[in-house]
Amino acid sequence: MTSNAKISTLHNLPGTKTSTLATENQRENSAGSKPSKEVSGSYDTRLVEMITTAIVDRSPAVRWDDVAGLDKAKQTLLEMVILPTKRRDLFTGLRKPARGLLLFGPPGNGKTMLAKAVASESHATFFNVSASSLTSKWVGEAEKLVRTLFMVAVNRQPSVIFMDEIDSLLSTRVTNENDASRRLKSEVLVQFDGVTSNQNDLVIVIGATNKPQELDDAVLRRLVKRIYIPLPDGSVRRLLLKSQLKGQAFSLPGNDLERLVRETEGYSGSDLQALCEEAAMMPIRELGQQHILTIKPSQLRRLKYEDFKKAMDVIRPSLQRSKWEELEQWNREFGSN
């Protein structure tokens, strides 16, 4: 039986343990071949189960509107994934979408949310991959898991394979590197190239990192689009603050809101969320323990500018200026400007 015939049986994913494939492997075993885990061209059903249960994200319910700003990154993802899934007849030949995208920038600014949004908007299968999900204590199993991952992605296309903190998985290879780590990196690179063997397959690999300078050169060659996700500018900070305060009782006249936008320069999206959460605690802290137990939520005073000013003494920007400048420089040299 050819390997293509075996792979075709996996179209029953997800759900069962691909009993057809298991039956074929049992037949080969009874004929004196190697166990199913070692049969060339076949896949271990246990690894398939690991992929479908631990790596496939079944609820990336994030929409474009949930991601503030980042218009350039949204446009790139629209061209790479969403439009090709809806109009495959248009995106062929020179217009076929790139298969690799790198989202890089300071942490906490929406890289993961963007990847989940594109999976939701395109109705694609979303594979959320980390270094820990692809490593194993058994020699050689990590490489098999990588092969299985890409095989399942092809069978469930359109698919998005999202590798968060990709630098921890595909950093620059060095001479004294651990042999298992080197083999894993090589297998990911080989499988990445294999995705493009069938030009009609729609499997997109998206990597996210805040340390792009540590990625291997071979990885950068495959991630042809590299989009910088910067710290939010004034207009995006204004949107983020309004989004965080939605549903809250607050008193921030226009001038106070604009002051807050100016004074939070250098804050990431996650920093702004933490700032709002800290400010929201200020009215409660003023009450004292006895009053906290008896007061009604509607009786709490409104948030005001002074609450955010006090919160800034506790919640400070998480990114050093030197790191920010380093990412800006890398973007000028290697980013898709």
From TrEMBL:
<dbReference type="InterPro" id="IPR003959">
    <property type="entry name" value="ATPase_AAA_core"/>
</dbReference>
<dbReference type="GO" id="GO:0008568">
    <property type="term" value="F:microtubule severing ATPase activity"/>
</dbReference>
<dbReference type="Pfam" id="PF17862">
    <property type="entry name" value="AAA_lid_3"/>
</dbReference>
<dbReference type="GO" id="GO:0005524">
    <property type="term" value="F:ATP binding"/>
</dbReference>
<protein>
    <recommendedName>
        <fullName>microtubule-severing ATPase</fullName>
        <ecNumber>5.6.1.1</ecNumber>
    </recommendedName>
</protein>
<dbReference type="GO" id="GO:0016887">
    <property type="term" value="F:ATP hydrolysis activity"/>
</dbReference>
<dbReference type="InterPro" id="IPR027417">
    <property type="entry name" value="P-loop_NTPase"/>
</dbReference>
<dbReference type="Pfam" id="PF00004">
    <property type="entry name" value="AAA"/>
</dbReference>
<keyword id="KW-0413">Isomerase</keyword>
<keyword id="KW-0067">ATP-binding</keyword>
<dbReference type="InterPro" id="IPR041569">
    <property type="entry name" value="AAA_lid_3"/>
</dbReference>
<dbReference type="InterPro" id="IPR050304">
    <property type="entry name" value="MT-severing_AAA_ATPase"/>
</dbReference>
<keyword id="KW-0547">Nucleotide-binding</keyword>
<feature type="domain" description="AAA+ ATPase">
    <location>
        <begin position="97"/>
        <end position="233"/>
    </location>
</feature>
<keyword id="KW-0493">Microtubule</keyword>
<feature type="compositionally biased region" description="Polar residues">
    <location>
        <begin position="1"/>
        <end position="33"/>
    </location>
</feature>
<dbReference type="InterPro" id="IPR003593">
    <property type="entry name" value="AAA+_ATPase"/>
</dbReference>
<dbReference type="InterPro" id="IPR003960">
    <property type="entry name" value="ATPase_AAA_CS"/>
</dbReference>
<comment type="similarity">
    <text>Belongs to the AAA ATPase family.</text>
</comment>
<dbReference type="GO" id="GO:0005874">
    <property type="term" value="C:microtubule"/>
</dbReference>
<feature type="region of interest" description="Disordered">
    <location>
        <begin position="1"/>
        <end position="40"/>
    </location>
</feature>
